[in-house]
Amino acid sequence: MSDASLHASPYENEAQFGDYFALLKPRVMTLVVFTAFVGLLAAPVGVHPFVGFCAVLFIAVGGGASGALNMWYDSDIDAVMKRTAKRPIPAGKVTRDEALAIGLTLSVFAVVFLGLATNWVAAGLLAFTIFFYVVIYTMWLKRLTPQNIVIGGAAGAFPPMIGWAAATGDISTASVLMFCLTFLWTPPHFWALALFVRMDYDNATVPMLTVTHGRRATRRHILGYTVLLAIFAIGLGFTQVGGPVYLATSLLLNALFLKGAVQIARRDEAQAEADSYKVEKKFFKLSLLYLFAHFGAILVDAGLDRMGVWA
């Protein structure tokens, strides 16, 4: 027996609180919380602060439940992808059965308590979001079609609609366009990432567009979706949640995003490899700012409107 094994802690591989929290995909949860919060506050109906807090909390828990169920089902491919190999299940910290139990329990908890705290329209949307992400995307289409990111993006696009429904009890043109904003943003965001981490998807045999159709086609798809995104994003500025701050932000960011997408579409792999995918990485970083800035602008306009600035 080696000295290292003699001195190893018997608790070294035991799960800590952070491992269970990691199951909930906290980075994704940040986006869920923020967009749901914006949808709630941008709605034309005010809600009690405590009710609003509960609504965002239960939406976040539902998003976390989806993440746990996704990790439960995808633990096999997570183990072979470099960027996911340290997740709790492939790292041996949490078992698949534990992840499944946590995901199912939190799903029921989130849906039931959101319905009790707000209304059953919002709860129904949350239940459908969890079902869509886990069953339609993760279990069915993720490993079947190169449009997996497009389909998966729909699940991540529901939170502002759920936040809006929590306040109003209904769905409107504005909430649908907030959904479209995230839905259409997801493909160029993730395909830009896939351009410089392609081997991960090759190793995991996930049919990412870069793998099935090649990088040239992926670059064209990024441009196409960016054009669609710009149309819907700017269009959102002319609904009841839009305003001067949002329109100015959207026009500037979409001009920069379109410029980046055109640059990506014009490049070949020799150019990209020569500068270590500098343009693609810059576009990916911009995409992170893009979504948060758009929803942040909606929030600012909503605040200024309630203060009577735009009256």
TrEMBL record:
Q: A Pfam family this protein belongs to?
A: UbiA
Where does the record say this protein resides?
A: Cell membrane
Annotated pathway: Porphyrin-containing compound metabolism; heme O biosynthesis; heme O from protoheme: step 1/1
Catalytic activity from the UniProt record: heme b + (2E,6E)-farnesyl diphosphate + H2O = Fe(II)-heme o + diphosphate
The primary location reported for this protein is membrane
* Record carries keyword Transferase: yes
What GO biological process terms are annotated to this protein in UniProt? heme O biosynthetic process
Entry keyword annotation includes Membrane? yes
Domain of life the protein comes from: Bacteria
| Record's keyword terms, sorted | Cell membrane, Heme biosynthesis, Membrane, Transferase, Transmembrane, Transmembrane helix
Which GO molecular function, any one, fits this protein according to its record?
protoheme IX farnesyltransferase activity
* EC assignment: 2.5.1.141
Question: In the record, which residues are listed under signal peptide?
Answer: none
Instruction: Enumerate the transmembrane spans.
Output: 28-44, 50-73, 94-114, 120-141, 148-167, 173-197, 222-239, 245-262, 283-304
**Bilayer topology term:** Multi-pass membrane protein
Q: Which InterPro entries match?
A: Protohaem_IX_farnesylTrfase, UbiA_prenyltransferase, UbiA_prenylTrfase_CS, UbiA_sf
GO-annotated cellular components? plasma membrane
Physiological role? Converts heme B (protoheme IX) to heme O by substitution of the vinyl group on carbon 2 of heme B porphyrin ring with a hydroxyethyl farnesyl side group.
What NCBIfam families does the record tag this protein with? cyoE_ctaB, PRK04375.1-2
Sequence similarity: Belongs to the UbiA prenyltransferase family. Protoheme IX farnesyltransferase subfamily.
Miscellaneous comment in the UniProt entry for this protein: Carbon 2 of the heme B porphyrin ring is defined according to the Fischer nomenclature.
Q: How does it assemble?
A: Interacts with CtaA.
Spell out the protein name for this chain.
Protoheme IX farnesyltransferase
The scientific name of the source species is Mameliella alba
Q: What is the lineage of its organism?
A: Bacteria, Pseudomonadati, Pseudomonadota, Alphaproteobacteria, Rhodobacterales
